[in-house]
Design brief:
Radius of gyration: 16 Å
Order of helices and strands: HHHHHHHH
Strand content: under 5%
Number of domains: 2
Low-confidence stretches: none
Distance between the termini: 50 Å
Mean pLDDT: 94
Number of strands: 0
Largest sheet: none
Length: about 150
């Protein structure tokens, strides 16, 4: 399967219903992401992966699921820029989760504080829904506790 075919599938994908006894989002996306990992020029599909998360912020894609696992397997340098663009467009629980994981890798208190400030901005984003605001608040509280232990 070509990267353009994968992008088309990602762009047209509509999550299956929770009561669909035949199809399951997580299984379908694990298979697709397995193909993506082997594709040439796979970085071309990264924006489409984030757009899917943004279109369906509360779909059951797993925790963290195939989309996040695939992106993380590619490495932070490969997806980091698109993650930040996605967060600026429309924060979602999965994109905030990914961002929080990046913050966890940081030990410099000043940088952690700057990330907490950004989390606060994402929480106040006009397209952030209540569920995502709660996720942002949980990550803010976690990182503030972590910041106190780093000092």
């Amino acid at each position: 399967m070509s990267i353009d075919q994968i992008i088309k599938i990602l762009n047209e994908f509509v999550p299956f219903s929770e009561d669909d006894s035949i199809n399951e989002n997580e299984k379908f996306l694990y298979e697709l992401m397995s193909t993506w990992k082997k594709a040439e020029h796979k970085e071309k599909a990264i924006p489409s992966i984030f757009h899917l998360m943004e279109r369906y912020p509360h779909a059951n894609f797993g925790s963290p699921g195939p989309l996040v696992h695939a992106l993380e397997s590619a490495g932070t340098k490969v997806y980091n820029g698109e993650l930040h663009i996605s967060l600026l467009r429309k924060p979602t629980p999965l994109t905030l989760w990914m961002y929080n994981r990046l913050i966890n890798a940081e030990n410099d208190p000043k940088i952690i504080k700057a990330h907490i400030d950004r989390l606060n901005l994402f929480k106040k984003h006009p397209l952030t829904d209540e569920v995502t605001k709660k996720e942002a608040e949980d990550f803010i509280n976690y990182q503030q506790r972590r910041l106190q232990s780093v000092h």
